[in-house]
Write a structure and sequence with these properties.
There is one protein chain. The protein is of the alpha+beta class. It has one domain: Domain of unknown function DUF1541 (SH3 type barrels), CATH 2.30.30. Helix content is 18%, strand content 31%. It is built from two helices and eight strands; from the N terminus they run ααββββββββ. Strands 1, 2, 3, 4, 5, 6, 7 and 8 form an eight-stranded antiparallel beta sheet that branches. A hairpin with an 8-residue loop joins strand 6 and strand 7. The longest helix has 25 residues. The chain is globular and about 40 Å long. The chain starts with a helix and ends with a strand.
Length: 194
Amino acid sequence: MKTRIFILGLGVTLILAACANNNEDMNPESGNQHPKSNSSENSESHMEEMEHSGSPEVPEGLKRAEDPTYPEGSKAMIETDHMPGMKGAEATIAGAFESTSYVVSYKPTNGGDPVENHKWVIHEELNQPDSPPLKPGTEVTLEASHMKGMKGAKATIDSANKTTVYMIDYKPTTGGEEVTNHKWVTEEELSPIE
């Protein structure tokens, strides 16, 4: 009888220990929620934090492109991999706009490790910026909410690119629901459908 109780107690202890280890991996305070995007494991976690679908609303002052390469309603192939299932998917253009797009690095407002080289935040998603384009190293406050902890975060401009930016709808190549109003991809990240 004592042996059975000992074995049962040992089994419960092992199960609780396994659960405790899993909880540590999911704890937002552990820093796993907002990793640096410069390693493949951290990059995947960073992409999982992105808001896949978004609102059709665009920032105030953002101007529609007059003669975009990919007009609203047209189709294009996605050549970038901001998120799993994006590259190689067929996109429907939900909007085309003229702006300066930025690669930014920032520390999320809800904790975690800094996010490095996030693509893209556009000029109209910055809080009271100077005239575009902003130079690399410029410190800004983000108004974008593409990811948890992004809005209100202090960021540094890594690079700037004056281009047409697109809001797109697409079905991920990995399966799952259609992504709608994804912000943003640049013209260079799309290609014609052949």
